[in-house]
Amino acid sequence: MPELVYVSPSGERRSVQAEPGSSVMQTAIDNLVPGIVGECGGEMSCATCHVYVAEEWFDRLPPISADEEGMLEVTAAEPSKFSRLSCQLRCVQETDGLVVHIPEEQ
Amino acid sequence: MVSPTAVGAALVIPDLSDPQTFVDDVPHAAFAAIRELPGLYWQPTNVSTTNGGYWAVTRFADVVAVERDPATFTSTRGAAYPLMTETAEQNPAKNSIMLNDPPRHTRLRRAAAKGFAPRVVANFEPWIREIVREAIAGVADRDEFDYVEAFARTIPAYVIARVLGTPREDRERMVGWVTALFAATQQPGSPTDTGGSLAALGAALEEMRAYAGEIQEYKRSHPADDMFTMLNGCLDRGEIDQDEFLEWMALMMGAGFETTHTAIGQSMRMYLADPEVRESTDRALDQGIIGRAVDEYVRLISPPMEMARAAVRDTELHGQQIRENDVVVLYYVAANRDPAVFAEPDRFNPWRTETETLAFGSGVHRCIGSHLAKLEIQILWEELRAAELHLRLNGTPRRGWSNFINQLTELPVARV
User: Fold this and answer.
1) Are strands B398-399 and B408-410 parallel, antiparallel or unpaired?
2) Are A76 and B118 a contacting pair at CB < 8 A?
3) Which of A86, B142, B241, B399 keeps 20 to 30 A from B231, CA to CA?
4) Which has the closest alpha carbon to B385: B320, B295, B288?
5) Which among A41, A70, A74 has the least Cβ separation from residue B118?
6) What pLDDT, on the 0 to 100 scale, is given for residue B297?
7) What integer pLDDT is reported at residue B188 of this predicted model?
8) Do the domain assignments include residue A65?
9) Average pLDDT over residues A1-12
10) Contact B148, B258 (CB under 8 A)
11) Residue A88 CB contacts under 8 Å (≥ 6 apart), including other chains
12) How many CB atoms lie within 10 A of CB B101?
């Protein structure tokens, strides 16, 4: 199972084994990782599953769609060039070891 | 009339489908008893059901399980009890986001989602504060007044008007339609009898759509930073069609007003009636965490007490066999006091660590306006304190006639 690392705003690292095919948002919810809300259940319509992808991982992920880009403009925490909505990131073999940083607020 | 069901020796579970059951108070003791029963509780009723009753879902985890599975539990035959229909086609609000499942739901939601996102809503703060201050100024020379009229009916109506871009002078019209809309939900009717609630609902919606159409035209020549202008853009880009546009606007008028109206009135009632609630709210204000107190208010109030779904196939939930076409009513008002999730669930405690609630639902239909609603209520508490407006109960609060919304229609208060 692909490994996924969540880094809390205070720098605490939490590693979990993700269900293959599950989203980074859903994996956080299922593992009670605080700081990722995912209000809309993964419909890309609430902007409450915002994460900052670790720099070295960013270019290895599938590209951002126009819809995701739109919602990233309105996240609670200021987005950076490494921002993604974690409902749009699938945990697969290629993302084994992915590191995402959780923002201060959602 | 269905005879009440006896549980154990003492408690009788009242008819949850009857608005009369909710007139004095929400039957929390009955909900607590139902939560303890094995499986799900079958509420027999012929109102708005096809199988002679509905399943009452009262546990937190069960509500979440239903809401995260729209492929099994559809919203297309109604989103709340008692407005369920046998088919999607029969529902007068069938083009509404609330009455749709993914993928149509997803497309509709996205049209307005940005407008209610956290950062966008945070920018509303200054003008919401202005509206709240105006409401407070409005009672400056009155020693006795109805808090529901002065605050609960005014603030959400002005806020939603500003968000949508409708003239403030239209407040009375809008409040009138929305009140008629929710009153319509309480008229007897069934999926096989298109009279009663569905016809009344259809009539109220028709007027709201006509109004939305007028404003839509006006905004064509007077575009502004508001929801009408934004959704006109979605329409022009082909993201939504005209029916969907009008339904979105009717929904925002209705949902933006009624639930926040309920939360504002009921929260003040709790504050005035319960010394512990008052003390905790004041302390939360001192500590700058009034947002957490607001979360507790909406959890305990659960303005829409329930939403509902219909099963599209035979399935099982919490060991209960559910048949195709069975209606399941998701009682947020009960799930939000589930002891499996909340320590001392009936207690108002802004410092509790279990903060996830179902006050706004969960899953794809989770309330799109939750950030806005919470901000309104939060600002109201802050401004009441800043204005040093101290109140006491000055008569008996009056509840509404509804098995759907935890309505408070009158809250007589006096200055102290």
Assistant:
1) antiparallel
2) yes
3) A86
4) B288
5) A74
6) 98
7) 60
8) yes
9) 95
10) no
11) A23, A44, A62, A64, A65, A68
12) 18
Domain boundaries, position A13: 3-101
pTM: 0.91
Number of domains in chain A: 1
CB contact under 8 A, B102 and A71: no
CB contact under 8 A, A45 and B122: no
Are B277 and B270 in contact by the 8 Å Cβ rule? The answer is: yes
Question: Residue with structure tokens 């987005």?
Answer: A79
Which of A59-68, B54-63, B130-139, B301-310 has the lowest average pLDDT?
A: A59-68
C-alpha A82/C-alpha A99 separation (Å) is 12
Smallest CA–CA distance, residue B120 to chain A, in Å, is: 6
pLDDT band at B196 (very low <50, low <70, confident <90, very high): low
The answer to whether the beta carbons of residues B120 and B114 sit under 8 Å apart is yes
CA nearest neighbour of B413 among B296, B265, B309 = B265
- Reported as a single tens digit per residue, the pLDDT across B81-100 is 988 888 888 888 899 999 99
User: Is the CB of residue A70 less than 8 Å away from at least one CB of chain B?
Assistant: yes
pLDDT band at B10 (very low <50, low <70, confident <90, very high): low
B233 touches chain A (CB under 8 A): no
- Percentage of chain B beyond pLDDT 70 is 95
pLDDT of residue B194: 45
What is the rounded average pLDDT of the residues A18-33?
94
Over residues B146-188, the pLDDT tens digits come to 999 999 999 999 999 999 999 888 888 888 888 888 888 777 6
Q: By the CB < 8 Å criterion, does A4 face chain B? A: no
Chain A / chain B CB contacts < 8 angstroms: 57
Q: Is B309 on the interface with A (CB under 8 A)?
A: no
Decide if B109 touches A, using CB distance below 8 A. yes
Chain B residue with the nearest C-alpha to that of A72: B114
In the numeric block, the tokens 């009229």 are attached to B149
Q: A76 lies in a domain? A: yes
- Name which of B68, B110, B118 is nearest A45 (Cβ-Cβ): B110
Please check whether residue A53 lies inside any domain of the structure.
yes
Task: Give B295's contacts (C-beta < 8 A, 6+ positions apart).
Answer: B350, B355, B357, B359, B374
Domain CATH code at residue A59? 3.10.20.30
Interface test with B, best of A29, A32, A39 (most B CBs within 10 A): A39
Which stretch of DSSP H or E encloses residue B73? strand B73-74
| Peptide linkage before B4 cis (omega within 30 of 0) | no
Tokens representing B314 are: 């035979």
A94 domain residue, yes or no:
yes
